[in-house]
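ARCHIVE CARD
Drawer: 12
Card no.: 0347
Subject: one protein chain, sequence and derived structure
Cross-reference: see card 0346
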Amino acid sequence: MTVQSATNDTEKLITVFTKKGNTIADKAARGLADSWVVSNASGLLVGFKGNPRVLVSINYLKKSATNDRLQKKEWLGHLRTIWKALKGQEFAGNSTATKEGNAALFDDRKFHKLVVKASQKLFRDRHYSQAIFEACKMLNKTVQSLSKSELDGKKLMLDVFSVNNPKLKLNPFVTTSDKDEQEGFMHIFAGVMQGIRNPKGHDIINLKDSIRALEYLSLLSLLFRRIDGVETK
């Protein structure tokens, strides 16, 4: 979820609901409401953590989305409250976010300790691209250290996690399922190096959205956790 996508989704739902009767029961409209909640509610709850008025609106929509009939007046009122807050740049993912707000967003994720070490201060200071890059560098360095390999980046990951002769085993590596998991994560580790650490002119380079940055850091945190206590060759 990004601020822009949440704004667009909210505007679309307002337009649809404005044309409906006092209660909304048709499947198409209720499906859009449910989709809005699935796509946006969690991110908005984090981004508007310091705004009780908006949190009330988000929680109302989240709770009532499963009802057989949706109340048009209430839904439109809450959607407009959220839309105005998004347009007014009250969301913590905007460039106007405070250091304190960003620190809270970061801490809420309970990242792996090495992501915290590499990225916490940078994220707090709104250097989102650099926070992601430093976490990638830390992941690369950690895999090099565990595997005692001098390779780097994508080549490093394809080599040390290879199912043919793995230097780092993510599981007992006995069953077909074990080997499939090993191969799958090999590609994820390699993909992070190729697709996140290295790109130039990519949206990561000038990233302004804190929620998207947190999603990248969450992926990196998962990979760090997968190599905690990993079996080495």
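Annotation on reverse: The chain has a mean pLDDT of 88. The chain has ten helices and four strands.
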